[in-house]
Amino acid sequence: MEEYVGELWHKLVTRVANQQHVEATVSLNEISKAAAIFFRALGGDAGLNLSAASSTRHGARRSWRDRLASSGERVELSWRDGETLRLPEKIGLFSERRLNRDLYFWLVALSAADIDDNLPWIVRNQTATLATLARFPGLASRYFQLVEAFLLLRTLPSKLPSDEAAQELAIRQALQQPGSVHALPKSKKPFQPVQLWTHPSPPVNTGNKVSTSNGAPERESSDDKPVEKSRRRHTANRTDAPDGKDGFLMMFRAESLFSWTEHINVNRPQDEEEDVESAALAAEDMDTMTVARDGETNVTKLRFDLDLPPAGEDDTPLGEGVSLPEWDYKKQAMLPDYCRLQECLSLQAQPCELPPQLQRTARHLRSQFQALAPTRTWLKGQQDGDEIDLDAWVRQETDLLIGAHPDARGMYRAQISQQRDLACLLLADLSLSTDAYASDHARVIDVIRDSLFLFSEALSATGDRFAMYGFSSLKRGNVRFNRIKCFDDRYDGLVRGRIKAIKPGYYTRMGAAIRQASTLLAKQPQRQRLLLLLTDGKPNDLDRYEGRYGIEDTRIALQQARKLGLRPFCVTIDREANEYLPHLFGVGGYAVIRKPEDLPKELPLLYAQMTH
Amino acid sequence: MKDLPFYQAQSSEAELFERAWRNNLPLLIKGPTGCGKTRFVAHMAAKLNLPLYTVACHDDLTAADLVGRHLIVDGQTVWNDGPLTRAVRSGGICYLDEVVEARKDTTVVLHPLADDRRILPIDRTGEVLIAPPSFMLVVSYNPGYQNFLKGMKPSTRQRFISLAFDFPTAAQEEAILVGETNIDAMLAKRLVSIANAFRALRDHDLEEVASTRLLVYAATLIKDGCEPTLACRAALVETLTDDPETAVALREVIDATFGK
User: Fold this and answer.
1) What is the mean pLDDT of residues B54-83?
2) Are A591 and A438 in contact (CB under 8 A)?
3) In chain A, helix, strand, coil percent, each to 5?
4) Which of B90, B24, B78 lies closest to B52 in space, CA to CA?
5) According to the model, what pLDDT value does residue A157 have?
6) Virtual torsion, Cα A28, A30, A33, A34, nearest 10 deg
7) How confident is the model at residue B233 (pLDDT cuts 50, 70, 90)?
């Protein structure tokens, strides 16, 4: 009973106190793509990701309702670092939806202004406001509407103690007349958050930031509970996993009540949290989430497969391996001979036939693709052409002489050449993430395997030259490049056997694989050379090859491929690919297959569209 | 002399063109679509008072389309000059627009014209035309990445001197808009600011970016009384993208410039 009453009370007071206008709330998901493009159009760094900011405890005075409900003590602020632009996950500050949406775009515009990060916060924001309004005068009316609506929500200076009032007045003046305030007066309590401004750095700066989505590939458990997609990021507080020796220090801390946020090196197996929802709630409430570099987050539930797959022994290395460079975007420099790539061939492959379940589709594809096979013919009786069609002319002259009705056909011959001067290299991602289930029946790797089968069936019908390779990596010294079919191999039972033998490897060092594939493809004499990349996610590896580093390296590798006259194209089943693929492949340079099980059929058709 | 088509010089391209013409050198102009390549050639042809023969190249363009072919007239075959042959005979400028679109075997007929021989052999008639000093061969292409499947044969390319065009600087582009459509300078400034915002999206969100030509279209609509945001949507946003979310972002840029 007590609990029941408590719950009711909680609901009541939070509803009273909640300043967020739920019905007018705009979420980042709704506008993220447009906002990202807007950001880039205004001159923002094209390599930045857009994501939700973590909420921060602001520590400022709250209204009595908020205090009663113990709500309103945290706020999501906007800021950006070298990799990401962070915006609030939802904005429901104003009662009008239009204003909330405008606030998003205002924050994006403000973040795009290139202002010295070292200026004091209040000066920097005013400078950015002035610069933005000067470049985009049309924003002015919306900005002042936002300011007007925003000031109504702030506590009046007359209701604050004098030091806080002075601060509040300065903020108000800076908002209304940007550029007029040169310093923020000091006060004992922090000021109320200013949601119209951005922060130059993470609001709570507690050491190194570790993205929650890096490191080892995540393995989805089969009974995956649908967790509402939350783009929010938790401020990560990086801690080195304490070894047992220092552990006792914590015991002497005065406030040594173990709370969720402290990192304790307990040898706890990563069993799944029974009550996922409560764990998720607890995580939402935390200030900082402690993540050890080699450990796991407790954000929701992630399981890690620490058994490395037994790929190594089954492959025969071919040759010595090659050294490849890698692009370091932080240094803006190419690191020569940084990766070691080993081409290898599966040992276990036995010649085999096409799996029976694919045979029908394969027959169908073959007959479709035979129509694309090259021909070079002279067409007779054309209205226009290089040569005179003497037969047609003689016939017409004869017709005229004998008084018959002349045929209105053309009298030229034209040569049409449908020669397909084309080579294609297909590069398949064989990282560990392909071990995950793509649908109820098949793992990603199975889908990729079927795709390779059908792709080779279709291409062997056209007579186009093609090669197929798979890749995976384990740090920079061990990039595995599995040869399935090189350009000179015939498509036969042995190749089918190698397709059958593909299995998930380790990680995805995409740049190195693309560089090697480009080298192989660039040696082909054909006029059109297509580098087709088949993948299920972002580039990543165990070392620093993750996030922006991996993306930028891949981007440079692709630029080099284009310079060699190759045409890269990416086919992915990663639904979030729209966030990073445009940066890598450009518009029209990639295709996202929503239903992975459609990939085997879609891939040959995509190929036909691209090359016809 | 005819009226000179309006052309706002970007740098010393006109001088270079004249020098090439005087010294019998063929010229290759490369640059994004709508940045003024064709206008420049038309301007120079008028300035040098030469006839201009323009050929828009396409996949099916054959050597016969350039050089000429036999036609049948009244039971007789009659030779009919193609634009290239006509330009050589009359000593004019032959301008092949988007030359990479043409098949590589087609462009080979340009080779003897584009080096110091300056001749055009016509196989079908057995003629060998010697180009007069005033003849000039100009080709252009757009190195944008939608054309990366088609490059120019190096042996063709190395016969030309090359001139790279890009979109004009903001001040020049404003001058072009004012010169073409007579809109006021403030409006021109805002249109150019929008175009430059869109150009930042090149290769990333947009396949092709706003050309000067599109800006002139927008300015023309505005000059005609169209409301600026509407004109920009019609001339710029909808022309550049089919993706609804990209369109939303582009409209935001326009609203941010003209106000809402």
Assistant:
1) 85
2) no
3) 40, 20, 40
4) B90
5) 87
6) -100
7) very high
pLDDT for position A129: 92
Of A34, A142, A567, nearest to B149 by CB-CB distance is A567
CA angle, A59 as apex, A53 and A60 as ends, to 5°?
110
| Residue pair B144/B164 in contact by the 8 Å Cβ criterion | no
| Beta strands, E only, A407-543 | 412-417, 422-429, 465-473, 479-485, 528-535
Cα distance between residue A533 and residue A427, in whole Å: 5
| CA pair distance A400, A199, nearest whole angstrom | 87
Q: Quote the ipTM score.
A: 0.80
Q: Please report which confidence band the pLDDT of residue A226 belongs to, taking 50, 70 and 90 as the band edges.
A: very low
Instruction: Indicate if the alpha-carbon torsion angle A252, A254, A257, A261 is positive or negative.
Output: negative
The answer to whether A37 faces chain B, any CB pair under 8 Å, is: yes
Q: What gap in Å lies between CA A70 and CA A67, rounded to an integer? A: 5
Q: Decide if A384 contacts A377 (C-beta within 8 A).
A: no
Q: How many residues does chain B have?
A: 260
Which residues of chain B are within 8 Å of residue A560 when distances are taken between CB atoms? none
Long-range CB contacts (< 8 A, 24+ apart) of A600-606?
A600/A358, A600/A361, A600/A447, A600/A450, A600/A451, A600/A453, A600/A454, A601/A361, A601/A454, A602/A571, A603/A451, A603/A454, A603/A455, A603/A534, A603/A571, A604/A365, A604/A369, A604/A454, A604/A455, A604/A457, A604/A458, A604/A459, A606/A569, A606/A571
Q: What is the pTM of this model?
A: 0.65
**Alpha-carbon span B244 to B260, nearest angstrom:** 19
Interface contact flag, A40 B64, Cβ < 8 Å: no
